What we know:
- The complex is a heterodimer.
- By secondary structure, chain A is mainly beta.
- In chain A, 0% of the residues lie in helices and 39% in strands.
- Chain A has a four-stranded antiparallel β-sheet with strand order 3-2-1-30, with no helix packed on it. Chain A has a four-stranded antiparallel β-sheet with strand order 4-5-6-7, with no helix packed on it.
- Chain B has one domain: Ubiquitin-like (UB roll) (Roll), CATH 3.10.20.
- In chain B, 22% of the residues lie in helices and 19% in strands.
- Chain B has three helices and five strands; from the N terminus they run E-H-E-H-E-E-H-E.
Amino acid sequence: MSRIRLLVGTRKGAFILTSDGKRERWEINGPHFAGWEMYHLKGSPAQPDRLYASQTSGWFGQLIQRSNDGGKTWEAVGNEFKYDGVPGTHKWYDGTQHPWEFKRIWHLEPSPTDPDTVYAGAEDAALFRSVDGGRTWQEFPGLRSAKGHLWQPGAGGMGLHTILLDPQDPKKIHIAISAAGVFRTSDGGATWQPANQGLKSLYELPDPDAEVGHCVHRIAMHPSRPQVLFMQKHWDVMRSDDAGGSWREVSGNLPSDFGFPIDVHAHQPETIYVVPIKSDSEHFPPDGKLRVYRSQSGGNEWEALTKGLPQQDCYVNVLRDAMAVDRLEPCGIYFGTTGGQVYGSADNGDTWNAIVRDFPAVLSVEAQTLP
Amino acid sequence: MIRVVLPYHLRTLARIAGEVHLEVGSPVTLGSVLSALEMSYPVLRGTIRDHTTLKRRSFVRFFACKEDLSLEPPETRLPEAVVAGAEPFLIVGAMAGG
């Protein structure tokens, strides 16, 4: 029977949660790297016991940890993230130009085919790649040439938080950057183009239709249909049917179209999940009710999933990297909150259980389906 | 022999229990001690000072003999008591406040 392994990054360490395929009883292992901010952990699809983790600290900076045994033991690998050449400048809060400065890695995306190849999304926004298991890192400087001088950090920092590798064409990559937008390459990362046509940021940008500057919170893709992308923007849930060439809004009947994560069902490419948050000023669920919303039509028509989730006095947030799906049938959905709960559903989201209730604030959740 | 005391998180990262003891050639400076430390424990590279510029990370402090050496240049010689091993060289995570 298959097993599930959840990789949970929190403000104060990493945890590994494992269960059999029933997903009823969970073994909790951790904290790993106790006291450190664990922004993201992810396993290699090609070698699932090879894990990568982003370990950061305001005091001691960035480390990358690697495991070859599913998280039982770890070794620190390379932590030198050097922007290529003279890094140049981006727009600063006061409108002046400001030099690019490395702060941390927000997201790690292992290659689907090579366990030694892994991509890393950085703040200040840049994309790095290692082809030697994380020992050394090289930047894709062409990304910052895509109008990087116009990118301006939001209050949460200018982080590259989403990396979607096209499973059908390794030369195609989509990335998303907080307060800059979506960018894509079709030549393996040498050149990049903004992919934000159709996004509207009425209250965030002086030109609501600007080519760059949109605060994209997350994009998601089903591996069988890489040309279809879903997006949770600052406000608005969006969809593209042409690999980011154009976007249209599919917020439909959501109680709020503000939020952070979005994910796609493992077996139903038109089934997507979001967690509505009241507003950019109030980062908690509307009416104190924690509700996952599911659309089975690729957007526009949404249903609230509430069974097992708190329906009163709930004021947590769910961050952009804190939702994941497994690949079992029925599909398992998981998300972590800033209140330290990790919720799981083993039935496509119909019912939920708290796997844990008292972790530190959850920054990221990834699900591995193991044989 | 130079005695170096690391903050908790760097001790766990480098898998060190207690003080680090380093042999450092003369003259013993702030920079030469940090280089010797990073040579012995490569995992600490980038956690105390920048990989390239060797600039101290903002929230790391260097203390010795009740003096704050954090703002001193890397060629600064460490006090004789540290060089003699009578006093440790302290690498400290700055107070978070609150």
